[in-house]
Amino acid sequence: MSTTRTLLAGAALAGSLLAGIAAAPAASAATATAASATVATQQAQTSGKHFFGPYYSGYGRGEDFAHRSYFKGYWTKDNGRYWFYGDLFDRDRDRSYSYVWFKWHDRFGFHTKVFKTRGHGDIDRFGGFKKSNGFDDFKIRVCEGTDKFDDCGRWGDAF
User: Fold this and answer.
1) DSSP string covering 82-134, please?
2) In Å, what is the CA distance from 32 to each residue of 42, 43, 108, 133?
3) d(Cα 39, Cα 92) in Å, to the nearest integer?
4) Is the pTM of this model over 0.70?
5) Coil, strand, or helix at residue 141?
6) pLDDT tens track for 15-29
7) N or C: which end of the chain has fewer CB within 10 A?
């Protein structure tokens, strides 16, 4: 009887060793897959879209909230550069322009850029700012009227 027990114990031990050896490549592949998924997640987070807005214009004569111009968008980071995208909408039909102001700061000082539209304007891949150049602030303001300074809303942070 002790010989039978010894044989069964030996067979069980050999079987568990073989199962462990067979599972090792699968475990190694699972670990590699998990590592590549983590890298992909980190890349998605650094190159993902970071949404902001909407930012609204101020009120003009006889306008209400439904007639205000607005801007909404997102920023991405690509190879150490920050890029901005968005849409400017002019919701009233008064034949005036809507303006979106961008103001940013870097080691060279403060800068502004203005885009305008009647109806809908698409801002695609604006910027290319780098943290290494001291880029640390980005603000947005929307105006609406005959001049780029008319009926402006408040400055809002996008970054």
Assistant:
1) EEEEEEEE--S-SS-EEEEEEEEEETTEEEEEEEEESSEEEEEEEEEEEGGGT
2) 15, 17, 45, 37
3) 46
4) no
5) strand
6) 665 555 555 554 444
7) N
